Amino acid sequence: KKEGVEIRTYNVIYEAIDDVKAAMKGLLAPKVVQADLGKAEVRQTFGIPKIGTIAGCMVTDGKINRGARARLVRDGVVVWDGPIGSLRRFKEDTKEVQAGMECGIGLQGFNDVKEGDVIECYEEQQVEATHQPRHHGYGHQEGDPTGDFDIDDSS
Q: Does residue 37 contact residue 123 with C-beta atoms inside 8 Å?
């Protein structure tokens, strides 16, 4: 207690384990995962003075969102990854375009877009990291719901 160490007492070992897991959860940084939103195929490109290249696209799957991130895929290889700079439909700015619709997509800071490229739209989401205990190879046995101990009850 003098050293500032917290002392806790438990009647059941599982309460102690749950407490340690909860404490560890707070120490783990959240994981960032990519959630795919949609894909668009580049059908034509347009060079716009002072703006750059706009990709005339058909949304083939899901939806494309302005403000989301995108990957430009050419021949199965990711050529560029970054934010969508602009999204237009019939010369009007729009927030999203659904599958089956055409749109113009501007990729922020990237102009080397070619017909046949695929633009994959995604969002990055933070997911709470969880501790995954290592498996010791013993498996779950009767009387051991965690699988952490090798119980020999052959006596």
A: yes
Contact predicate 120/39, CB 8 Å: yes
* 86 contacts 106 by C-beta, under 8 angstroms: yes
Q: What residues contact residue 75 under an 8 Å CB cut-off, 6+ apart?
A: none
Task: Tell me the average pLDDT across 51-79.
Answer: 91
Q: What one-character-per-residue DSSP string does 92-128 give?
A: EE-SEEETT-EEEEEETT-----TT-EEEEEEEEEE-
- The encoded tokens of residue 58 equal 């058909």
Indicate whether this model's pTM tops 0.70: no
Rg (CA), the chain: 26
Average pLDDT over residues 74-98: 90
pLDDT, tens digit (0-9, with 9 covering 90-100), for 29-58: 677 778 888 999 999 988 888 888 899 999
